[in-house]
Specification:
12 strands; Rossmann fold; 7-stranded parallel sheet; 3-stranded mixed sheet
Length: about 325
């Protein structure tokens, strides 16, 4: 299949491009920053945020693709030009949404039918989650109105190689290697539900393997979950060390900006997401558990990833001093 990937040079998109190429698809990426690409992948240069660039670069090629993956839309103004360009021309349009669309629920696991909100004041993830909801709704309305074959994938927290944020696993790996204390806000018992980046890519590939995915929404998450503190222990296990955990009192942790932990579940509560619909309708199964996924991520960190990041733990020391002083 002839496939266009918007993005494709960093994290989700990078792993998606590799997965598509391995499956024999004819892949084109459209982005503004060069990166290594699998053999045979074509690159189109352009910054989609600049007015007119999508029409200029993709307009003359709009009949060259069977499927489009949009990994870099956050507001309806991002996705609308693509709908206009590819309406009636593609078999699949796959939008990377997020589990950040959901409202907090007392009942879990959260399925695709649970409430979402485009109200930034109500959505727990504020502007990011609300923007993804608006994009999903625009695409759903377009599907109902014109048959535009859009599928939205609500991707959860990810783990694995090439993370763009050192505040995720890379920062923990570096602290653990250095024997530094690991700061845990509160008791760390809230659940955190993650999915390996290669499992996300596999789910995305599965979408274009069935026309029944058009008009649908799917949660994409791992088969396993853990508490935050257990996840830290699993990272330490991957590194081969025993972690020194320092629990930061909740009242202190809530005052700190930026927060001392990437995963906001520590203060708003954990959520577990159902992936039964994706398993049933897409024939997709996560290949990685938490242990195997972290082992893979740490191997990459050892072999290549450590040089990707710059770490400064000065703030950790400041927080440790606050904890010791009871401030």
């Amino acid at each position: 299949m002839r496939v266009l990937v918007l993005g494709g040079n960093r994290y989700i998109g990078r792993h998606l491009v590799e997965a598509l190429a391995r499956r024999g698809h004819e892949v084109t990426v459209f982005n503004s920053h060069e990166s290594a690409l699998p053999e045979g992948v074509r690159r189109l240069h352009g910054d989609r945020r600049m007015p007119g660039v999508i029409d200029e670069v993709l307009g003359p090629r709009r009949d060259q693709f069977d499927a489009v993956f949009d990994n870099t839309s956050y507001q309806t103004t991002d996705v609308t030009p693509l709908v206009e360009l590819f309406r009636g021309r593609v078999r699949h349009f796959v939008f990377t949404s997020s589990t950040a669309v959901y409202l907090w629920s007392d009942v879990q696991p959260v399925t695709e039918e649970f409430p979402v909100s485009d109200d930034e004041a109500r959505n727990p993830s504020r502007a990011y989650g609300a923007g993804k909801v608006r994009c999903e709704r625009l695409l759903r309305e377009e599907y109902v109105r014109s048959g535009f074959p859009a599928t939205s994938l609500r991707v959860g927290h990810t783990l694995g190689p090439h993370s763009p944020l050192p505040t995720r696993e890379p920062g923990f790996f570096a602290r653990l290697e250095a024997g530094r204390p690991i700061l845990v806000p509160g008791d760390g018992m809230a659940a955190v539900h993650l999915v390996h980046i290669d499992d996300v890519a596999a789910a995305m590939c599965a979408v274009i393997e069935t026309d029944a995915s058009a008009g649908q929404v799917y949660n994409v998450n791992g088969a396993e979950f853990s508490s935050i503190v257990a996840y830290i222990r699993l990272m330490a296990e991957a590194v081969g060390v025993e972690p020194e955990l320092v629990h930061v009192p909740r009242d202190i942790a809530k005052r700190l900006r930026p927060p001392i932990l990437h995963w906001a579940e520590w203060y708003r509560g954990g959520t577990v997401f159902s992936i039964e619909k994706a398993k049933s309708e897409l024939g997709w199964r996560p290949a990685f558990g938490l242990r195997s996924g972290l082992a893979y991520a740490y191997r990459w960190f050892q072999e290549e990833g450590r040089s990707w990041y710059t770490f400064d733990f000065t703030r950790d020391d400041e927080v440790l001093a606050m904890v010791q002083a009871g401030v």
